[in-house]
Specification:
- The protein is an alpha/beta fold and 408 residues long.
- The protein folds into two domains: 10-30 and 279-405, Lyase, Ornithine Decarboxylase, Chain A, domain 1; 91-272, Alanine racemase (TIM Barrel, Alpha-Beta Barrel), CATH 3.20.20.
- It is 26% helix and 23% strand.
- The protein is built from eleven helices and 17 strands.
- It has helices at 13-18, 33-43, 61-69, 79-87, 104-112, 123-136, 172-175, 202-222, 249-263, 274-277, 310-314, and strands at residues 28-32, 50-54, 73-76, 95-97, 117-120, 143-147, 187-192, 229-231, 267-272, 281-293, 296-301, 320-322, 330-336, 345-352, 360-363, 385-390, 393-398.
- The strands form two sheets. Strands 1, 10, 11, 12, 13, 14, 15, 16 and 17 form a nine-stranded mixed sheet that branches. The protein has an eight-stranded parallel β-barrel with strand order 2-3-4-5-6-7-8-9.
- Helix 8 links the parallel strand 7 and strand 8.
- It starts with 12 loop residues before the first helix and ends in a 10-residue tail after the last strand.
Length: 408
Amino acid sequence: MTTKPNWFDTRIEDALLAHQSPDDEQGYFVYQLDDLKEHLEQLQQQDVIKLWFAVKANPLSKIIQTLDSAGFNFDVASAGELAQVLAQGISPDRVLNTGPAKSKKQLTAFVNLGVKTFVVESLNQLTWLNEVITEQGTVERPTVLLRVQLQWPDGEKNPLGGNSLTPFGLSVQEWQKVQVSDYPNLDICGLHIFQWGNMLSNEKMYSLWGQMVAPLTSLANDIGMELKILDLGGGLGIDYLNEGKQLSWQQIIADLADIKAQSGVEELWLELGRFAVAECGYYVVPVVDRKMNYAQEQLVLAAGINHIIRPAITEQPFPVTLLRSSTAPSQVFDIHGPLCTSMDKLGHLSLPDDVGVDDKLVFGYCGAYGFTESMPFFLCHQLAAEYVFQAGALIEVRPAQPATSYLA
Protein backbone atom coordinates (compact mmCIF):
# COMPACT_ATOMS: atom_id res chain seq x y z
CA MET A 1 0.00 0.00 0.00
CA THR A 2 1.33 3.44 -0.94
CA THR A 3 2.16 5.62 2.05
CA LYS A 4 0.53 9.02 2.08
CA PRO A 5 2.97 11.94 1.80
CA ASN A 6 3.88 13.84 4.95
CA TRP A 7 1.90 16.93 3.89
CA PHE A 8 -1.35 14.91 3.89
CA ASP A 9 -3.24 14.89 7.20
CA THR A 10 -4.73 11.40 7.35
CA ARG A 11 -7.38 12.62 9.82
CA ILE A 12 -9.20 14.04 6.80
CA GLU A 13 -8.87 10.98 4.56
CA ASP A 14 -12.04 9.10 5.48
CA ALA A 15 -14.19 12.20 5.06
CA LEU A 16 -12.77 12.86 1.59
CA LEU A 17 -13.23 9.24 0.54
CA ALA A 18 -16.84 9.27 1.74
CA HIS A 19 -17.74 12.62 0.17
CA GLN A 20 -19.95 12.19 -2.87
CA SER A 21 -21.59 15.21 -4.46
CA PRO A 22 -22.43 15.74 -8.14
CA ASP A 23 -21.98 19.49 -7.52
CA ASP A 24 -18.29 18.90 -6.73
CA GLU A 25 -17.37 16.90 -9.82
CA GLN A 26 -15.20 19.75 -11.09
CA GLY A 27 -13.13 20.00 -7.92
CA TYR A 28 -13.46 21.48 -4.42
CA PHE A 29 -11.32 22.94 -1.62
CA VAL A 30 -11.12 21.67 1.96
CA TYR A 31 -9.47 23.39 4.92
CA GLN A 32 -8.53 21.39 8.02
CA LEU A 33 -9.36 23.89 10.78
CA ASP A 34 -8.23 21.74 13.72
CA ASP A 35 -4.81 21.44 12.09
CA LEU A 36 -4.78 25.18 11.36
CA LYS A 37 -5.61 26.00 14.98
CA GLU A 38 -2.73 23.84 16.24
CA HIS A 39 -0.31 25.46 13.80
CA LEU A 40 -1.35 29.01 14.72
CA GLU A 41 -0.98 28.30 18.41
CA GLN A 42 2.62 27.22 17.80
CA LEU A 43 3.33 30.44 15.88
CA GLN A 44 2.01 32.52 18.76
CA GLN A 45 4.21 30.89 21.40
CA GLN A 46 6.72 33.77 21.32
CA ASP A 47 6.90 37.40 22.40
CA VAL A 48 9.28 38.77 19.76
CA ILE A 49 6.94 39.72 16.92
CA LYS A 50 3.39 40.90 16.34
CA LEU A 51 1.69 38.68 13.77
CA TRP A 52 -0.68 39.85 11.06
CA PHE A 53 -2.51 37.64 8.57
CA ALA A 54 -2.23 38.69 4.91
CA VAL A 55 -5.88 38.24 3.92
CA LYS A 56 -4.93 37.93 0.24
CA ALA A 57 -3.72 34.39 1.00
CA ASN A 58 -7.19 33.14 1.92
CA PRO A 59 -10.16 35.40 2.75
CA LEU A 60 -12.67 32.65 3.58
CA SER A 61 -14.77 33.55 6.63
CA LYS A 62 -13.91 30.37 8.57
CA ILE A 63 -10.19 30.90 7.97
CA ILE A 64 -10.38 34.49 9.21
CA GLN A 65 -12.37 33.41 12.25
CA THR A 66 -9.78 30.78 13.15
CA LEU A 67 -6.95 33.30 12.85
CA ASP A 68 -8.95 35.77 14.92
CA SER A 69 -9.34 33.21 17.72
CA ALA A 70 -5.56 32.65 17.61
CA GLY A 71 -4.90 36.35 18.22
CA PHE A 72 -3.76 37.34 14.74
CA ASN A 73 -4.35 40.84 13.37
CA PHE A 74 -5.26 41.43 9.73
CA ASP A 75 -3.43 42.95 6.75
CA VAL A 76 -5.95 44.02 4.10
CA ALA A 77 -5.14 45.46 0.68
CA SER A 78 -8.60 46.26 -0.69
CA ALA A 79 -12.07 47.43 0.30
CA GLY A 80 -13.35 43.89 -0.29
CA GLU A 81 -10.83 42.35 2.08
CA LEU A 82 -11.67 44.97 4.71
CA ALA A 83 -15.39 44.28 4.38
CA GLN A 84 -14.78 40.54 4.80
CA VAL A 85 -12.68 41.04 7.93
CA LEU A 86 -15.15 43.45 9.51
CA ALA A 87 -18.01 41.06 8.68
CA GLN A 88 -16.40 38.52 11.04
CA GLY A 89 -16.82 40.96 13.96
CA ILE A 90 -13.16 41.99 14.02
CA SER A 91 -12.43 45.52 15.23
CA PRO A 92 -10.92 47.91 12.66
CA ASP A 93 -8.31 48.66 15.34
CA ARG A 94 -6.76 45.31 14.37
CA VAL A 95 -6.52 46.08 10.65
CA LEU A 96 -3.42 47.18 8.73
CA ASN A 97 -4.07 48.70 5.29
CA THR A 98 -1.39 47.77 2.75
CA GLY A 99 -1.26 47.80 -1.06
CA PRO A 100 0.24 50.01 -3.80
CA ALA A 101 -3.03 51.39 -5.24
CA LYS A 102 -4.60 53.37 -2.39
CA SER A 103 -6.51 56.38 -3.71
CA LYS A 104 -7.63 59.30 -1.56
CA LYS A 105 -11.19 58.00 -1.88
CA GLN A 106 -10.17 54.60 -0.51
CA LEU A 107 -8.13 56.12 2.31
CA THR A 108 -11.14 58.24 3.27
CA ALA A 109 -13.38 55.17 3.31
CA PHE A 110 -10.95 53.20 5.45
CA VAL A 111 -10.60 56.07 7.96
CA ASN A 112 -14.39 56.40 8.12
CA LEU A 113 -14.66 52.69 8.89
CA GLY A 114 -12.26 53.04 11.81
CA VAL A 115 -8.97 51.76 10.37
CA LYS A 116 -6.11 53.41 12.24
CA THR A 117 -2.96 51.77 10.82
CA PHE A 118 -1.67 52.37 7.29
CA VAL A 119 1.32 51.44 5.16
CA VAL A 120 1.80 54.26 2.64
CA GLU A 121 3.62 53.44 -0.58
CA SER A 122 3.98 56.82 -2.30
CA LEU A 123 4.34 60.53 -1.62
CA ASN A 124 0.80 60.97 -2.92
CA GLN A 125 -0.60 58.45 -0.44
CA LEU A 126 1.18 60.21 2.40
CA THR A 127 -0.22 63.60 1.35
CA TRP A 128 -3.72 62.26 0.79
CA LEU A 129 -3.87 60.51 4.16
CA ASN A 130 -2.71 63.67 5.90
CA GLU A 131 -5.41 65.62 4.05
CA VAL A 132 -8.08 63.08 4.99
CA ILE A 133 -7.23 63.35 8.69
CA THR A 134 -7.12 67.16 8.45
CA GLU A 135 -10.54 67.24 6.81
CA GLN A 136 -12.00 64.86 9.42
CA GLY A 137 -10.96 67.23 12.19
CA THR A 138 -11.55 65.14 15.31
CA VAL A 139 -10.15 61.83 14.10
CA GLU A 140 -7.14 60.61 16.10
CA ARG A 141 -3.80 60.42 14.35
CA PRO A 142 -3.38 57.11 12.53
CA THR A 143 -0.21 55.03 12.82
CA VAL A 144 1.69 55.27 9.54
CA LEU A 145 4.51 53.14 8.14
CA LEU A 146 6.44 54.13 5.02
CA ARG A 147 7.10 51.26 2.63
CA VAL A 148 10.70 51.15 1.46
CA GLN A 149 12.04 49.36 -1.62
CA LEU A 150 15.72 48.45 -1.45
CA GLN A 151 17.99 46.99 -4.12
CA TRP A 152 20.57 44.25 -3.76
CA PRO A 153 23.44 43.63 -6.21
CA ASP A 154 22.59 39.94 -6.63
CA GLY A 155 19.03 40.01 -7.93
CA GLU A 156 16.98 36.91 -8.66
CA LYS A 157 13.50 36.01 -9.86
CA ASN A 158 11.05 36.16 -6.97
CA PRO A 159 7.25 36.37 -6.68
CA LEU A 160 7.45 39.75 -4.94
CA GLY A 161 10.09 41.20 -7.21
CA GLY A 162 13.15 40.58 -5.05
CA ASN A 163 15.71 42.90 -6.58
CA SER A 164 13.47 43.94 -9.50
CA LEU A 165 11.79 47.34 -9.67
CA THR A 166 8.18 47.00 -8.49
CA PRO A 167 5.36 49.41 -7.52
CA PHE A 168 5.73 48.42 -3.86
CA GLY A 169 6.90 51.46 -1.89
CA LEU A 170 9.67 53.91 -2.74
CA SER A 171 13.44 54.05 -2.69
CA VAL A 172 15.32 55.51 0.26
CA GLN A 173 16.20 58.47 -1.96
CA GLU A 174 12.55 59.30 -2.64
CA TRP A 175 11.52 58.98 1.01
CA GLN A 176 14.38 61.28 1.99
CA LYS A 177 12.33 64.12 0.46
CA VAL A 178 9.94 63.75 3.40
CA GLN A 179 10.16 65.35 6.84
CA VAL A 180 7.90 63.77 9.45
CA SER A 181 7.20 67.16 11.00
CA ASP A 182 5.47 68.26 7.77
CA TYR A 183 2.63 65.78 8.47
CA PRO A 184 1.40 66.73 11.96
CA ASN A 185 -1.86 64.80 11.67
CA LEU A 186 -0.08 61.48 11.11
CA ASP A 187 1.92 59.40 13.57
CA ILE A 188 4.67 58.40 11.15
CA CYS A 189 6.59 55.99 13.34
CA GLY A 190 7.47 52.93 11.28
CA LEU A 191 9.01 51.51 8.14
CA HIS A 192 7.77 48.58 6.07
CA ILE A 193 9.86 46.45 3.73
CA PHE A 194 8.80 43.26 1.96
CA GLN A 195 10.32 42.14 -1.34
CA TRP A 196 11.03 38.41 -1.11
CA GLY A 197 8.35 35.73 -1.38
CA ASN A 198 8.39 32.01 -0.49
CA MET A 199 11.86 32.02 1.06
CA LEU A 200 13.06 28.58 2.21
CA SER A 201 16.41 29.36 3.83
CA ASN A 202 16.72 30.65 7.38
CA GLU A 203 20.25 31.82 6.59
CA LYS A 204 19.23 33.82 3.52
CA MET A 205 16.28 35.40 5.28
CA TYR A 206 18.46 36.49 8.19
CA SER A 207 21.06 37.85 5.77
CA LEU A 208 18.43 39.92 3.93
CA TRP A 209 16.86 41.16 7.16
CA GLY A 210 20.30 42.09 8.49
CA GLN A 211 21.15 44.10 5.37
CA MET A 212 17.94 46.10 5.82
CA VAL A 213 18.71 47.46 9.27
CA ALA A 214 21.35 50.07 8.42
CA PRO A 215 19.59 51.78 5.48
CA LEU A 216 16.25 51.79 7.29
CA THR A 217 17.52 53.21 10.57
CA SER A 218 19.53 55.77 8.63
CA LEU A 219 16.42 56.79 6.67
CA ALA A 220 14.44 57.22 9.87
CA ASN A 221 17.11 59.56 11.22
CA ASP A 222 17.25 61.53 7.95
CA ILE A 223 13.52 62.32 7.94
CA GLY A 224 13.15 63.01 11.64
CA MET A 225 11.32 59.79 12.50
CA GLU A 226 11.47 58.07 15.87
CA LEU A 227 11.54 54.51 14.51
CA LYS A 228 9.22 52.52 16.78
CA ILE A 229 7.90 49.87 14.37
CA LEU A 230 9.61 47.76 11.72
CA ASP A 231 7.37 45.63 9.52
CA LEU A 232 9.29 42.94 7.62
CA GLY A 233 6.25 41.70 5.71
CA GLY A 234 6.20 37.96 5.18
CA GLY A 235 7.86 35.80 2.58
CA LEU A 236 8.26 32.68 4.74
CA GLY A 237 8.15 29.77 2.35
CA ILE A 238 6.53 26.38 1.85
CA ASP A 239 8.49 23.49 0.27
CA TYR A 240 6.08 22.84 -2.61
CA LEU A 241 8.68 20.79 -4.50
CA ASN A 242 9.44 18.49 -1.55
CA GLU A 243 13.15 19.26 -1.71
CA GLY A 244 13.69 18.86 2.03
CA LYS A 245 13.86 22.61 2.58
CA GLN A 246 11.99 23.50 5.73
CA LEU A 247 12.18 26.76 7.64
CA SER A 248 12.73 26.52 11.39
CA TRP A 249 10.23 28.73 13.21
CA GLN A 250 12.40 28.67 16.33
CA GLN A 251 15.36 29.95 14.30
CA ILE A 252 13.19 32.63 12.71
CA ILE A 253 12.21 33.90 16.15
CA ALA A 254 15.83 33.85 17.34
CA ASP A 255 16.94 35.72 14.20
CA LEU A 256 14.18 38.29 14.54
CA ALA A 257 15.01 38.89 18.18
CA ASP A 258 18.49 39.84 16.98
CA ILE A 259 17.10 42.09 14.21
CA LYS A 260 14.81 43.75 16.76
CA ALA A 261 17.76 44.50 19.02
CA GLN A 262 19.89 45.78 16.12
CA SER A 263 17.18 48.15 14.88
CA GLY A 264 16.19 49.33 18.35
CA VAL A 265 12.47 49.25 17.58
CA GLU A 266 9.70 48.73 20.11
CA GLU A 267 7.69 46.47 17.83
CA LEU A 268 8.61 44.07 15.05
CA TRP A 269 5.81 42.93 12.73
CA LEU A 270 5.37 40.05 10.28
CA GLU A 271 2.49 39.60 7.83
CA LEU A 272 2.07 35.87 7.27
CA GLY A 273 0.11 34.43 4.37
CA ARG A 274 1.10 31.01 3.06
CA PHE A 275 3.20 30.21 6.14
CA ALA A 276 0.09 30.62 8.29
CA VAL A 277 -2.52 28.78 6.22
CA ALA A 278 -1.06 26.85 3.25
CA GLU A 279 -0.64 23.53 5.03
CA CYS A 280 -4.26 23.33 6.20
CA GLY A 281 -5.71 23.34 2.68
CA TYR A 282 -6.42 20.67 0.07
CA TYR A 283 -7.88 20.67 -3.40
CA VAL A 284 -9.71 17.52 -4.56
CA VAL A 285 -10.39 16.97 -8.27
CA PRO A 286 -11.40 13.98 -10.45
CA VAL A 287 -9.42 12.58 -13.37
CA VAL A 288 -11.36 12.93 -16.65
CA ASP A 289 -8.94 11.23 -19.05
CA ARG A 290 -5.62 9.37 -19.23
CA LYS A 291 -3.57 9.01 -22.40
CA MET A 292 -0.09 8.37 -23.77
CA ASN A 293 1.25 11.15 -25.98
CA TYR A 294 4.74 10.98 -27.55
CA ALA A 295 5.83 8.49 -24.90
CA GLN A 296 4.59 10.71 -22.06
CA GLU A 297 1.74 9.67 -19.78
CA GLN A 298 -0.83 12.43 -19.42
CA LEU A 299 -3.74 12.97 -17.05
CA VAL A 300 -6.50 15.47 -17.83
CA LEU A 301 -8.46 16.71 -14.82
CA ALA A 302 -11.92 18.20 -14.42
CA ALA A 303 -10.33 21.51 -13.42
CA GLY A 304 -6.87 23.02 -13.51
CA ILE A 305 -5.56 26.57 -13.34
CA ASN A 306 -9.14 27.84 -13.38
CA HIS A 307 -9.10 26.67 -9.73
CA ILE A 308 -5.40 26.56 -8.78
CA ILE A 309 -3.37 28.88 -10.99
CA ARG A 310 -0.21 29.04 -8.88
CA PRO A 311 1.71 26.36 -10.89
CA ALA A 312 1.34 28.42 -14.08
CA ILE A 313 2.54 31.60 -12.36
CA THR A 314 5.49 30.21 -10.42
CA GLU A 315 6.38 26.97 -12.25
CA GLN A 316 6.14 25.30 -8.82
CA PRO A 317 3.31 22.74 -8.68
CA PHE A 318 1.25 21.94 -5.65
CA PRO A 319 2.18 18.42 -4.46
CA VAL A 320 -0.34 15.72 -5.33
CA THR A 321 -1.44 12.28 -4.13
CA LEU A 322 -4.06 9.74 -5.17
CA LEU A 323 -6.97 9.85 -2.75
CA ARG A 324 -7.58 6.10 -2.67
CA SER A 325 -4.97 3.55 -1.60
CA SER A 326 -2.82 1.84 -4.23
CA THR A 327 -0.07 -0.78 -4.29
CA ALA A 328 0.97 0.07 -7.87
CA PRO A 329 4.47 1.38 -8.63
CA SER A 330 4.86 5.08 -9.26
CA GLN A 331 4.78 6.69 -12.68
CA VAL A 332 5.47 10.31 -13.65
CA PHE A 333 2.55 12.05 -15.34
CA ASP A 334 2.04 15.38 -17.02
CA ILE A 335 -1.08 16.70 -15.26
CA HIS A 336 -3.34 19.07 -17.21
CA GLY A 337 -6.62 20.84 -16.63
CA PRO A 338 -9.52 21.30 -19.09
CA LEU A 339 -8.73 24.78 -20.40
CA CYS A 340 -7.88 25.41 -24.05
CA THR A 341 -4.41 26.74 -23.34
CA SER A 342 -1.06 25.04 -22.82
CA MET A 343 -0.70 27.12 -19.63
CA ASP A 344 -3.19 24.79 -17.96
CA LYS A 345 -0.62 22.38 -16.59
CA LEU A 346 -0.50 21.48 -12.90
CA GLY A 347 2.85 19.72 -12.94
CA HIS A 348 5.04 16.80 -13.96
CA LEU A 349 4.38 14.66 -10.92
CA SER A 350 4.57 11.09 -9.65
CA LEU A 351 1.43 9.05 -8.97
CA PRO A 352 0.60 5.32 -8.75
CA ASP A 353 0.60 3.75 -12.21
CA ASP A 354 -2.97 2.45 -11.82
CA VAL A 355 -4.49 5.95 -11.61
CA GLY A 356 -7.36 6.24 -14.06
CA VAL A 357 -10.57 7.95 -15.12
CA ASP A 358 -12.84 8.93 -12.18
CA ASP A 359 -10.04 8.60 -9.64
CA LYS A 360 -9.71 11.63 -7.38
CA LEU A 361 -6.44 13.46 -6.85
CA VAL A 362 -5.66 15.57 -3.78
CA PHE A 363 -3.32 18.55 -4.07
CA GLY A 364 -1.65 19.82 -0.91
CA TYR A 365 -0.65 23.23 0.50
CA CYS A 366 -3.78 24.74 -1.07
CA GLY A 367 -4.80 26.71 2.01
CA ALA A 368 -3.09 29.75 0.49
CA TYR A 369 -3.35 31.24 -2.99
CA GLY A 370 -5.93 28.76 -4.22
CA PHE A 371 -9.59 29.73 -4.66
CA THR A 372 -9.23 33.53 -4.89
CA GLU A 373 -5.96 33.69 -6.84
CA SER A 374 -7.16 31.69 -9.83
CA MET A 375 -8.98 32.38 -13.13
CA PRO A 376 -12.34 30.63 -12.70
CA PHE A 377 -14.25 32.37 -15.50
CA PHE A 378 -12.19 31.18 -18.48
CA LEU A 379 -14.16 28.63 -20.55
CA CYS A 380 -17.18 29.09 -18.27
CA HIS A 381 -16.50 26.22 -15.92
CA GLN A 382 -18.12 26.17 -12.49
CA LEU A 383 -16.73 27.87 -9.40
CA ALA A 384 -15.32 25.43 -6.88
CA ALA A 385 -16.97 24.73 -3.55
CA GLU A 386 -15.12 25.39 -0.29
CA TYR A 387 -15.44 23.14 2.75
CA VAL A 388 -13.94 23.09 6.21
CA PHE A 389 -13.09 19.98 8.19
CA GLN A 390 -13.59 20.48 11.91
CA ALA A 391 -14.20 18.09 14.81
CA GLY A 392 -14.38 15.16 12.39
CA ALA A 393 -17.02 16.70 10.12
CA LEU A 394 -16.85 18.02 6.56
CA ILE A 395 -18.91 21.25 6.39
CA GLU A 396 -19.76 23.19 3.25
CA VAL A 397 -19.07 26.92 3.53
CA ARG A 398 -19.47 27.94 -0.11
CA PRO A 399 -21.36 25.69 -2.56
CA ALA A 400 -20.16 25.09 -6.10
CA GLN A 401 -21.70 27.54 -8.56
CA PRO A 402 -22.37 26.91 -12.26
CA ALA A 403 -21.38 29.37 -14.97
CA THR A 404 -24.99 30.56 -15.17
CA SER A 405 -24.49 32.18 -11.76
CA TYR A 406 -22.04 34.74 -13.15
CA LEU A 407 -22.72 34.97 -16.91
CA ALA A 408 -24.85 37.89 -18.05
